[in-house]
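Hi support team,

I'm filing this because I wasn't sure whether my run with S-adenosylmethionine finished correctly. The job status page said complete, but I'd like someone to confirm that the output block is well-formed before I use it downstream. Pasting the exact inputs I used:
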Amino acid sequence: MAEIGPLSFETSFSSGALTESSSNTASFSSTPPTTLSPDSMSLASDPDVPKHGSIVTPLLDAAIPLLEDAQKAQIQQMERDFDRKAPHTSPPAESQEPNDQSSRHTPVANAIVVEPLPEEPPFAGRARRARASLPVYNLAKLSGTRPYTKRVANGEPVDSKRRRTIASDTPATGSNETANGDTNVRPKASEPAQGGIDAMGLDLPAAAVAPSSPATPNRARRIIKKPKSVKLIIKSTKSTKSTPAPAASITRRATRLSGEPVASLTSKMTALGKRGRKTIERGLDRMTHELRRLQDTNEFAHIDTRPVRYTVWSNGKYIDPDASEEEAAATPPRKKARTSESATAAQPGKEPEIDAEKKETTGPVPKKRRVKKWLDKGLYSGQDTPVDVFQNLNAQDKKKLASLPELIRPVKPNKTLPSPMYNGLRMLMNGRDFKLPFDICSPLPPGQPKPAHYRTMTKNRFVGDASAYWKKTPHFGDFASKCVCKPEDGCAEDCQNRIMLYECDETNCNVGKAHCQNRAFQNLQERTKTGGRYRVGVEVVKTSDRGYGVRSNRCFEPNQIIMEYTGEIITEEECDRRMNEVYKDNECYYLMSFDQNMIIDATTGSIARFVNHSCSPNCRMIKWIVSGQPRMALFAGDRPIMTGEELTYDYNFDPFSAKNVQKCLCGSPNCRGVLGPKPKEVKPPKPPKETKKSVKGTIKAGKRKLKEMLASGDEKEPEKPTKKVKLVIKKAKKPSPSSAGLKAAKGAAKSAVKGATVIIKRSVASVSTNTKLALSSSTKKPTTKKAAATKKSITTIKKSITTDKEAPRVKRKYVKKNTPRVKVSSRSSSLTTIVAAGPASEKKKTAGPGKKTPKTKKMTPASSAKSTPKKSATPPSSVKVASGRKRTPSWKVLNSASPDSEMAAGDAVSAKNTPSSAKSRKTLDMARSDKIWAVDDDDE
Ligand SMILES: C[S@@+](CC[C@H](N)C(=O)[O-])C[C@H]1O[C@@H](n2cnc3c(N)ncnc32)[C@H](O)[C@@H]1O
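And here is everything the job wrote out:
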């Protein structure tokens, strides 16, 4: 405190006893004042002077005795000086007014001026102590940090008395601000006040200062014993200005200078004073409690627990070790553009983006043309485009290439990067097999239109007499096929069962399931038994013009089985009845000739019934013998089927009546225009004698040889059978009036006549009459001269055959035109049996299986057309479609002679419809014809 200059304090006492006249000037600093009013000292020391207990502070009480001796000495010295200077002549003023000391002792600077306190507002009543009743929130308790164990600080149990200790400044203010508002003179907390009072006059006597703990040297603890209410205003004077202040607190203003009311310490002290001691102590306890809690923290003790780090600097930049490498990488180093940006940023009012744009527009930056570097060396270098692509190609390949213009060399060949495909031209033309790595399935989204009143049936079901009739007929039993394949063959194309359209099973297969490839229906069952649209692979779609249809939602390999055609197996009588009674108002019929002159009615059946007709189909409907039972299924054609393709097969539809001819809407280039029979392909005529002999001999031999071969397991191919036939000349009748169907049928008839072929017609007894009539009607009125010429030469060979004693007789009719040659070259001929509807006037009755049907007057030429020989190469359709739109109730099953049905009905041998090689086809043909004629032989 020695540095502090003489201070002049104006201390005002609120005592009413002290008036302005009694104010004294006294030095309150440690430096003895030059002048001191003796009155003040006397006032303080004079016990007679009434003291106002409430206003005499203990500070002054403590200060006055200390200053008393020095001040007395000073006063005495001053008096001596005064006496020495003053003339002795003049009477001393004090003699006149002994009480007026102020006139004798002029106030001097650096003296304490005790001023009266400003007037307090009138006492409004009892001091409010409502705060004492307010709830006290224990922050530690609320925050969950309140300790429940005995507190330990610095490894030692904390004494409960320490709760009364506080650190640093006075609890009243809680700040570093001194009473005079000036922090410049802030004493060090660790220093005890010299003589118990420092220059601030606020600190406590030295005796009251607690020794600081050695562990916490920076913590000065003072025990506040009895804070008393003190109304003390200490004003700083000029001396404060001369006080050297620390640089850190230069900016702070003295409260007095700012003009603000000095309320920091005094008001709070006053507030404290108004409260009771208990309240204050309680508050202090609370404060100390929190502070005590804090003092145990490292932050309070200024203990830095963080490890010492050595900073890394690189290129003048601080490298933050906490920053991850990704962050460092994410913030790329500043580029040069930044410099321009910063330069522009330094110029006010300029935006860097605008500047950059300006630079782009203004600055003539020449664009560098990018030159693409082509690969002229490497894998395909040196493979020049052939000058002549046709070079070294044979005629066939040249023709192929001409049809593929995209393979022909372009006008300007790319020499830089020649395509290697030039060297693979031949391979490209021939193509190569490949397999997709996965199957494709794209089912239609849900919500597709569904056909109404449609009930599914996944297995054939016999209805009515069909079952009894079926059992009565010992079909297939007499000619069970037996596979003679080896495991390495795998029952492929050459499998005898396959050729005969017998599916292999445990009873007839030589290689076993593991190696056998001739188990289409079993595979289908395996595929579809768990369900799922992909496994089924087909879905019903609504076509724009043909009602419902079926499309694939997956790929199918060539000849792969797609789905089975199932329904109710009914007799012809039942079919008659349904057509006349049940389906008389239907637009579509789902009837197909099946086997043993029975019919599958798929009105309740599988969705195969929705498959539409096409003149260029991608599927075939084929009947197989599976475990001794005939079953019909849709198979893919010779080419694979892609996802989304509509599935079609050739109905080979034969409308019973011209009125029922429907326009074909398949849209294929070779569309026949109507839902009619396939065009008949004719064979060159042969001499009748030779043919007759040949046929007879071949068939006889073929039947026996085939039996022998199958029995002995001989793999030798059977010889072509010959057949002895009877030719019955049938008179041709006049055709029905012209119509669309008639015209279509006429075309077929013409082609048959033109070819001057022998028409071989076979039929079961029940439909032989129909066939006969059809043939008669078709030849009744030849439309051409050639037909007329052949009219006389038509011979009908009628032959009754039976498969065995119990089986019904099967009649075969062979109509020979022009040439006596009678031979069926291939079973694959499309002699389709068609179930069609006719007008009411044409109503006929069917006699059921094995019975003749009544004669029909009106027959379409199509009937005759269907009896024309078929091309062997053409895949046969063993399907008899019974379908048509809005037909009249009267209808007739025109089960014309169909090799397909006949073979199934009369015999056990059927030929494979889908041979994938010419060899198979040949074998198939032989087997088929052998079978046909063999039946006749037996019959004979
Ligand atoms: C067995 S149903 C086929 C499913 C039929 N589309 C349906 O909606 O139920 C045969 C009938 O379909 C129609 N149809 C099938 N293929 C056709 C085609 N290519 N052109 C015109 N109509 C066809 C004919 O009405 C035919 O009588």
